[in-house]
Design brief:
13 helices; homodimer; Rossmann fold; alpha/beta
């Protein structure tokens, strides 16, 4: 997905929020904002929005001497979500359609996006969970279930810390012997890395690889060869979060995206409302199928 | 008022909205956005936000070959507001405190900001008018009335087209023999120029001067010498709109600002909520008075 002009004010807004959350002082905030303005002035809009996210967060980490400002927040969010896990797992198991319930809760985890909200409120999360179980889901769960059945080799692309606990609920509905989970290679925002997969018990469940990159999404050209090989070999990819949608939607692979449409630009791209819960197969594949 | 970092995403959002409203095509939109990003990267933040507005709208007009993209919109908004004028005038005359009613309606005119909304809805405007007459006004109308009484020479700084009709209601409550109205010197956004003062009948009521500048506010250094002299000589200045507040708040003159606080940054500066109706004397003067 290309970057559109509406993304630019949003990049600047996110930059300021991120550098403040990271504890950057007034001078640091100013230097980062001016650097991002310069990057954005020359930004190649054929690239996806997460390519800009990568540059922004590299600038912020460089200003902070390479330190990951989100490390402690991510740990807290994993812990917070792990406390919810037993009850949420009961909900999935008790559901009439456990796969659908797990997809819905995985999207709830995406909706919460605890990295954006530095403070997470228990009541607010409970509300998001109930909504996610009740509101319409834009997607075909039966088709998704069939794709899982038919798959030989499933690669699950995780999104954020905290959210990754909700992803575990979905993973547990998959044939685990066929599944590998991929996380980001290096810290970027609150995106899950190997540390997070370890903390929430996913490493004990399935093989976990990392993609070698520091992009809040999956730009294949930025990922290391081992990840790219694994990506190519998989016959089903489940991609969590809007960043993975923005970076992989045009890739001609059998990808199912599972996320909440969080901004107007993505909602327009999907022809849905902001806040819609999405389970969607990559357009590249759908078109290939249609023209067969 | 200095520009704060929060203003930057807003500049970009406004740029995109303005260039689209002006009918700029996709390439024009992109060129303007990139040019504004470069300007913003080096922008002197000791300047007020309208200084950036001036640069943005110069870039847009230059892209459009110098044509004023708002000319027709301004004409429509004046006409729209003139249709409301007789009824609003009755409301002012029938009010227990006509000056207060006129201040409130002048703020309603500012709240509508018809330049930002390309389409103006009659029902929506009626609602804004009723609210403006009912909700709390942050300011001391009796003190304002006394300042008007005591003044020898009043300079009224108008804001936008359309809104200038609402300003006329306030002007009619002033001792007209002491009043001069000032408009912008050249087109910028939907700000009122001499043409608008003519169209809405203000030129027939009081002397109208222009400030020689194309700033959506009043940056004295950008105004021509004749205006600056007139500004210096006045012992009471009534400044309409947020742009005039942002540019004149620190000026040590007897200025009353009349406007709605439309953004978080200005609301924080005023220690009020967004949407508050403001009648406020310049801080510079208040401080001078306090330390006497």
């Amino acid at each position: 997905m290309r970057t559109v002009l509406e993304c630019i004010p949003c990049f600047l807004r996110q930059t300021l929020g991120a550098v403040r959350l990271a504890g950057g002082d007034a001078e640091c905030q100013e230097r980062v904002m001016r650097a991002v303005l310069r990057e954005a002035a020359d930004f190649d809009r054929t690239l996806s929005p997460p390519a800009m996210g990568q540059r922004i967060h590299r600038l912020i980490r460089a200003e902070l001497g390479g330190r990951d400002p989100y490390a402690e927040i991510k740990r807290q969010h994993n812990e917070f979500a792990l406390n919810l896990y037993p009850e949420l797992r009961e909900r999935v198991l008790a559901a009439e359609n456990s796969l659908e319930a797990a997809v819905r809760l995985a999207i709830a985890g995406n909706a919460i996006d605890m990295g954006v909200n530095s403070h997470v409120d228990v009541d607010q999360v409970a509300k998001i969970v109930e909504q996610a179980l009740a509101v319409p889901l834009s997607g075909d769960v039966a088709e998704f279930a069939a794709a899982i059945d038919q798959a030989r080799d499933i690669l699950f692309l995780a999104d954020n810390a905290g959210e990754i606990v909700f992803d575990r609920l979905l993973l547990e509905q998959l044939p685990l012997e066929k599944v590998t989970v991929a996380v980001r290679g290096r810290p970027v925002i609150n995106d899950a890395t190997r540390t997070d997969a370890d903390e929430v018990g996913i490493t004990a469940l399935v093989p976990v690889i990392d993609n070698g990159a520091d992009v809040p999404g999956t730009i294949l050209g930025e990922c290391d060869p081992a990840f790219r090989r694994r990506f190519d070999e998989s016959d089903l990819i489940i991609a969590k979060g809007q960043g993975n949608y923005e970076t992989l939607n045009d890739v001609p692979k059998n990808i199912y995206f599972v996320f909440m449409a969080k901004c107007q630009v993505v909602a327009r791209h999907l022809n849905c409302d902001v806040g819609s819960m999405i389970l969607r197969r990559a357009v590249g594949v759908a078109e290939q199928t249609a023209t067969r």
